[in-house]
Input
Amino acid sequence: MFRAAVVRSERVTPSVQRVTVAGDELDSFDWVGFDQWFRLFLRRPGQEELIAPPVTGSGWWPAYLAMPEEHRPHCANYTVADFRPRASCPSGVSELDIDFVVHRGPDGALEGRAAIWACGARPGEPVVLLDQGVLFDAPSDASSVLVVAEETGLPAAVGIARSLPQDAVGRLILEVPTAADRRPLHAPAGVEVTWVVRAEPAAVPGAAALAALREHVPADDRGYAFVVGESTLATAGRRHLHRAGLPKSRITFSGFWKHEARVPAHA
Output
């Protein structure tokens, strides 16, 4: 567990709010790049103190569930958007960036506890992080790398692109809600970046990326694919790649969330 506090919160694209946290305990954070992710613990509305569950030999989840509801913090999974150790950080303290997707309902109001928290986060707000390592696991003999994600997987994709060796070859297929959500990526010269902008605001996130992926055929069976984001994108993307000749052992997929169709008010 790493305790830290918010130092700033800013909108970096129309659909992404970036919260930067800092603290002395982050000096010990072992940042390895790629899609390194963590559990983020936040105070619930009305809680005066952030009490983190203890981490024991049997893990943290049972202790978390055993906490009284009035003390149990909100928990969600996020990827390290960037990390600046104390020695190279202008502020003189270790900083970690977290990107939150800004979801809005039909009336334009913010949706989602984490997004609401991020947009309203003020300096000094406490957080706790539990490092969970990386999912990205490209074999050393991978002939190419394919990364597919919608906006919830964008921090992972950005981190992977930045961490790949400079002689890497492959492709990134990245879906975003608006053209303004595209951003410069630090990817090797041999990695093609395809941005897919959703045509309709009400479209299911990940559907456009999946359509682009279905047009992609692996060059051989020695590549490696990383497909994350909405559940259908992850599972259907894996199915397509396997049918196209990529072994299941060379596909990492993870459905971060599942889209629930909205029921019209008059239905």
